[in-house]
């Protein structure tokens, strides 16, 4: 059966195709009688309006792209779960993609020719993207950047103050009397601004406490995954002077580190205290539960969607906006033991 | 700046709009000299082809919808991570949605009028959808169903044999000498075929071993989440005759149960052995690591994408196909203790 067209509906209803189009698009200038006739014909032929074609005629796709580095990383999965229903509630469909944190892929996504009218705007959580890449983006693409960087007002950005949050996490470990705190998750400058901001917070906490940083305790890892935390922890424990605490750059890193500590017969937090970052659900149910920095994910989602849709709907130029979201330190068993709330 | 059109490019290149269209669409009948002129004009004007409009002219959107109950459930997040790059590699963009496992929402998605040409096909992992809902689906919608149900050849379905897998998980617990095995995650008939197939496997294992089923050990939970496992476990431990093993209907249920067991000072597996389902990464790094049924997720993704694209590309009617994917039982610390591989 061929798909019925507007013309088929018009023929059956005995009206012009333009009248059918007016009914389908909800325009007012149709008499109730004509409307009823057309609606009956639409029903009878099981006509489906071509939403995309209609949007495109208005210069829109009605679609928003949401792009994260990895869909199966719990933090990003939780973020998507918070973002997608909010975009859908605003009447847009959601295209999803993942970049593997690849800088070239991220940069390509925000270049002018990439989008080909597929989406009206994009929420992007980049890992590798540089400020230079961002400067070269399509100026006509409504874009909201999530995550660890500062925008200086050059683009729309939603995130928490990672340096302050990391400083607080490490200060928490220092306040428990720990003095050999490993920082697990650092990355070379070219790779990750996220990592460097956490390392900056680690340094700041030591500086504020008037304590020196042992550079050998700052450990680089390829990513922020469980396997990265486990591998780094194993190496740290093989040293003659192992750490008495770990600041993991994500909860996954912390969970990987905890797995290795327990395997080696060490107690968490008595022998080694561990704090993570992200407040994913895993860390709330693991034993020990994981102390962490908890960004306010629903506020991040709300702010990002709001900002993007305001930009899509505005016609003129809009200045970039920096939206800083609150966070809290949640102290659980992995730092304060069973007495934890 | 207004978006340049094909006509602008044609004017600048001194050719007809049809010639520009031939170049943009890669058709052969253009001389190298003309092609070069057009390409220069395209570059100069920074022309972007309207991919969607082009697809729509061919009766396609070039988009595929992938719909799961919850984006932030690790099993579905891992499945998406496996599916999306495979769909993208086949040249389609991916629309993602989540249904909260709501039957009405799932049924609406596969009805004729719902899609309005937004996508050329759908991969759907339903929770509540009934066989009757499936029978009433849009017959023209290329659709692949994932998860726990049988298709009887009426539609395309990719999944593992959940009854057999559940039976094996429970047989594993029986083989370790456990005789009071709780089944955590059952659901009333109307809600979840997934749950019922696991309960059927639980019963089958007892039957094969010639052992009676204690009906009071089959516990219903609202969903398959950590909180469900934790709540159910707490109630089971408050009984005068607590279980000596737990079959959790997901790894999340198992992880929630383990959290409560350890909190109460019980040893896993010595006092209570626990097996889960799904083989998500969490269970590999938790302490104890979680024994589980491991479905072959890349084969599921591969089969689903392959089947969907074959159906999109075929013109005539195609018979429904049942694709049964392999699984394995992975015995880890939560059942066999530290000696586990």
TrEMBL record, chains A, B:
A Pfam family that the UniProt record links to this protein: LacI
Per its UniProt record, what CDD domains does this chain match?
HTH_LacI (cd01392), PBP1_LacI_sugar_binding-like (cd06267)
Sequence ranges assigned to domain HTH cro/C1-type in this UniProt record: 5-48
Domain of life where this protein originates:
Bacteria
Residue ranges of every copy of the HTH lacI-type domain listed in the record: 4-58
The residue stretches assigned to a coiled coil in this entry are: none
Record-level Gene Ontology MF annotations: DNA-binding transcription factor activity; transcription cis-regulatory region binding
Keyword terms of this UniProt record: DNA-binding, Transcription, Transcription regulation
InterPro entries of this UniProt entry?
Cro/C1-type_HTH (IPR001387), HTH_LacI (IPR000843), LacI/GalR-like_sensor (IPR046335), Lambda_DNA-bd_dom_sf (IPR010982), Peripla_BP_I (IPR028082)
Q: Record's SUPFAM superfamilies?
A: lambda repressor-like DNA-binding domains, Periplasmic binding protein-like I
Against PANTHER family, the record matches this protein to: LACI-RELATED TRANSCRIPTIONAL REPRESSOR, LACTOSE OPERON REPRESSOR
Q: What is the name listed in the Swiss-Prot or TrEMBL entry for this protein? A: DNA-binding LacI/PurR family transcriptional regulator
Q: What is the lineage of its organism?
A: Bacteria, Bacillati, Actinomycetota, Actinomycetes, Motilibacterales
């Amino acid at each position: 059966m061929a798909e019925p067209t507007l013309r088929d509906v018009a023929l059956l209803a005995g009206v012009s195709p333009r009248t059918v189009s007016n009914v389908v698009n909800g325009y007012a200038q149709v008499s109730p009688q004509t409307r009823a006739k057309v609606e009956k014909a639409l029903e009878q032929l099981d006509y489906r309006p071509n939403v995309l074609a209609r949007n495109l005629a208005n210069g829109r796709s009605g679609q928003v792209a949401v792009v994260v580095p990895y869909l199966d990383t719990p933090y990003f999965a939780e973020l998507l779960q918070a973002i997608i229903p909010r975009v859908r509630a605003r009447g847009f469909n959601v295209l999803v993609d993942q970049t593997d944190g690849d800088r070239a892929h991220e940069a390509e996504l925000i270049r002018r020719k990439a989008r080909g009218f597929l989406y009206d705007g994009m929420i992007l959580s980049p890992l590798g993207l540089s400020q230079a890449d961002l400067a070269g983006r399509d100026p006509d693409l409504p874009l909201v950047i999530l995550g660890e960087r500062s925008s200086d007002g050059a683009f729309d950005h939603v995130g928490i103050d990672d340096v302050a949050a990391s400083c607080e996490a490490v200060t928490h470990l220092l306040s428990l009397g720990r003095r050999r705190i490993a920082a697990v998750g650092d990355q070379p400058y070219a790779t990750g601004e996220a990592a460097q901001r956490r390392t900056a917070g680690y340094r700041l906490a030591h500086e504020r406490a008037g304590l020196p940083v042992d550079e050998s305790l700052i450990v680089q890892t390829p990513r922020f995954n469980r396997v990265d935390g486990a591998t780094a922890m194993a190496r740290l424990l093989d040293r003659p002077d192992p750490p008495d605490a770990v600041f993991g750059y994500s909860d996954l890193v912390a969970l990987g580190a905890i797995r290795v500590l327990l395997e080696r017969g060490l107690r968490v937090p008595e022998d080694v205290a561990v704090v993570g970052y992200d407040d994913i659900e895993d860390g709330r149910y693991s034993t020990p539960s994981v102390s962490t920095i908890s960004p306010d994910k629903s506020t991040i989602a709300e702010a990002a969607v709001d900002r993007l849709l305001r930009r899509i709907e505005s016609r003129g130029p809009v200045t970039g906006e920096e939206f800083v979201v609150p966070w809290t330190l949640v102290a659980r068993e992995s730092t304060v033991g069973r007495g934890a709330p």
